[in-house]
Design goal:
Helix content is about 50%, strand content about 15%. By secondary structure, the protein is α/β, with parallel strands linked by helices.
Length: about 150
């Protein structure tokens, strides 16, 4: 499985630790090709990672100060369903019920909490129940401008 991970300037150290952890578990992990600096902007990283997620049908992880900005920017990319998650249960539900292909996290959280959420997100199967698929399809219709 391929996983893309990106962050703005506030999450560089934590993101690097998460990357190494995921690589140690055998995942193919790539970061953004954009350079972090004190004046970078989270929408640039959200867009970069989301394009790669779509291209490779992969999963994505985004980190910024709160995770909110990354989530908003990511959800503007057609085909991305990004959930801003704050705990393990939300990571599970984002994948199982909402078919999320990207999660956004706050880099203010403890490394151990982030790893728990990342593991849960990656290990949870995508939505398969009819009711969840029906809802995801409605989201897709909204995104495509065909919702009635």
């Amino acid at each position: 499985m391929k996983i893309y991970i990106g962050c703005d300037h506030t999450g560089v150290d934590l993101t690097n630790k998460v990357k190494e952890y995921l690589k140690s578990k055998g995942y193919m992990v790539e970061g953004s090709t954009l350079e972090n600096n004190d004046f970078d902007d989270y929408p640039d990283f959200a867009y970069d990672i989301c394009q790669k997620v779509l291209r490779d049908e992969a999963l994505g992880i985004l980190l910024c100060g709160t995770g909110i900005g990354m989530s908003i920017a990511a959800n503007k990319v057609k085909g991305i369903r990004c959930a801003k998650v704050s705990n393990k249960e939300e990571a599970y539900l984002a994948r199982m019920h909402n078919g999320a292909n990207v999660i956004a996290l706050s880099d203010k959280m403890a490394y151990e909490e982030i790893i728990e959420m990342v593991d849960t997100f990656i290990e949870t199967e995508e939505a398969k129940e009819e009711r969840h698929l029906r809802r995801i399809e409605k989201i897709n219709k909204i995104e495509n401008g065909s919702y009635n």
